[in-house]
């Protein structure tokens, strides 16, 4: 368990929460309870994608798109049509880089910061710390 001081820092910034192994695990547990973990799964998949070897980026980008971004994807995240199109265009560019999902990830992070992150900070899981 983290010290209360560390947990308090999580409430100051979403990124601080996500850089903490315990904090991100607790947030994930909270989202699983709410059946709304696809946004976090997408956000994490993009973080892992950025560390993918360049030769494997195209295939990995396609998979993330199919899993999360495409309309009717198994874990579809809530993105506007323009962001979906920009992301697809980036992927189809022939040589996707670590920035392919930047716009989509920013939108999802902003959504989490305004909604589920705030609910997490008011939840018993967090307040007990």
Automatic annotation (TrEMBL):
Bilayer-spanning residue ranges: none
Top-level taxon of origin: Eukaryota
Ranges for domain RGS: 13-129
Cited InterPro entries: RGS, RGS_sf, RGS_subdom1/3, RGS_subdomain_2
The protein, known as: RGS domain-containing protein
The organism of origin for this protein: Daphnia pulex (Water flea)
